[in-house]
Amino acid sequence: MHKILAAFLALFLLQAVCLPKDPPPITDDTISDAVRVKLASDQLVGVLDLKVTVAQGVVTLGGTVEAKSLSARAERVTRKVKGVKQVVNQIEIKTRSGK
Asked: Under a CB-based contact definition with an 8 Å cutoff, are residues 34 and 40 in contact?
């Protein structure tokens, strides 16, 4: 009887240890954090003050940059983040004036 009980206990423990764990769910908060980290670590857009909001996987980028290429770069970097369904780029392009 003890051997059967020990065998069931060992089998139960083996299954508990060996079963694959579900990955944590991707939430808007995790997407937002990941986008901010990716943007901050990018050599070109990492120094910019960009705003990031996420709703149901849709990332909205805001802020101001001096060149269209920087806006496009921020959008490309954001699209590569896992869980991002869509990017709404509301970054304004404002060139420096000579004044």
From this structure: no
